[in-house]
Amino acid sequence: xxxxxxxxxxxxxxxxxxxxxxxxxxxxxxxxxxxxxxxxxxxxxxxxxxxxxxxxxxxxxxxxxxxxxxxxxxxxxxxxxxxxxxxxxxxxxxxxxxxxxxxxxxxxxxxxxxxxxxxxxxxxxxxxxxxxxxxxxxxxxxxxxxxxxxxxxxxxxxxxxxxxxxxxxxxxxxxxxxxxxxxxxxxxxxxxxxxxxxxxxxxxxxxxxxxxxxxxx
Length: 217
Hints:
By secondary structure, the protein is an alpha+beta fold.
């Protein structure tokens, strides 16, 4: 169990996908919310926009679930990826990393992605998948700039989630750091959109020519 959060963490040597395993276990009622699943090796991981997340042993492959009722009351579910990604970014920062959050759910160091988060809502349950390159990185990706024990990282991350910090407090910090996003792109309706001139709204959406787009991941 994680201190201040009644969440059990299950560890495995190998799984096709922590997220698919967790969804199936919840469906069969063999696991109950809140719970987390971690594996040393993931052979068929899921990334953003249904891309695969390449597995290399020693990295973080995590999925966890929470009741959506336990989330901050001022947090729109459309922006939960930003919220949880920012808390993970803060956790890594407190150990000395220079990682930053690229809207809405990617963790970057300089100009390379080192990890990310995807979220889904199934009935009243939030299911979150996390991947971070802790020790090795596939070609074209970056590596975390600090050495950290996986179990310590998870303990601190879940303790931060358990504090149930309001969205407005998290967003006020992220809005200042959003300047780091300006040289990157995002995707909406399969279109590549530059973040250079986009406006970040208070609910976490991006204003694209008067139309708001949300993370929905």
